[in-house]
Amino acid sequence: MKRVELKNATVFRLIDASPPPADWAYAFAAHAAEIDATARRRWAPDGLFHTNFSAHAIVSEGTVALIDAGLGPEPSAYFNGLRGRLDQELSAASLTPDMVSCVMFTHLHLDHVGWASRDGQPCFPNARYVIPKAELAHWKSRGAEAALPHHVAAFERHIAPLLARGLVDERGDGERAPGAIPLAYRLLPGHTAGHSAVMLEGGDAPLVIAGDSWHSPAQIERLDWSHRADHDPEAAVSSRMRLAQWASGTNALIAAGHFPEDAGFGHVEARSEGGFVWRPLR
Prior knowledge:
Layout: E1 2-5, E2 10-17, E3 22-23, H1 24-27, H2 37-43, E4 48-49, E5 53-60, E6 63-67, H3 86-92, E7 100-104, H4 110-113, E8 117-118, E9 121-122, E10 128-132, H5 133-142, H6 149-164, E11 168-171, E12 183-187, E13 196-200, E14 207-209, H7 218-221, H8 233-250, E15 253-255, E16 265-270, E17 276-280
Parallel strand pairs: 6-7, 7-10, 10-11, 14-15
Antiparallel strand pairs: 1-2, 2-5, 3-4, 5-6, 8-9, 12-13, 13-14, 15-16, 16-17
């Protein structure tokens, strides 16, 4: 668990689970030919793609918001029995589920919704659950064809019960979430139809929970690299470019949930020769 103190909030990175590393060329299959010796030396010395499934807790004046909900407490068949530990991470941050008043999802893949509900009951009993409007519209209209089967199963298990109970709010691009913390979505489609970052304004610089805009620091320098899970790679590249340009111009603090533990917070810096580079917060 990493903690960052901001002017108007405290932000915790809560690592729910860390799956076994995958072959780098498998994670970025469309770009396997570009993963040369230089790229491996910089981003994957062992030739493997290491990732984390993270959530972020934002605490401001006694109010707690949770961004994304990890893989969940039950063994994941898709990830060979891997299970999450978000409850332990919250406890280490001196937080409890009943303290959370708002849960915002960047999108609805299985590694982001697992602690939303369990056995039909909300895991955060005092929270409203917020989903990007475009994301929820996609899932409602496409049903079983909204995503790959393991994601659909996670939606039915963890999100559908919340919808049935009337616990879900939709918010569009730029619309503020319910609650006292000034959080809003920034629509960044491509990874999924309604994938959105979560923005916290009011500090010295914005905070951005980037969702799956990037899966690796490599993608900040190689913005055209798409992870295999991107639904629309072309749109995802466009979204990454727009976010990188905006983040470098505003000095935004980025929280990247899939990045290695020592690089989960940082800044996107524009290079004089063009392009961008990731500067982890140390």
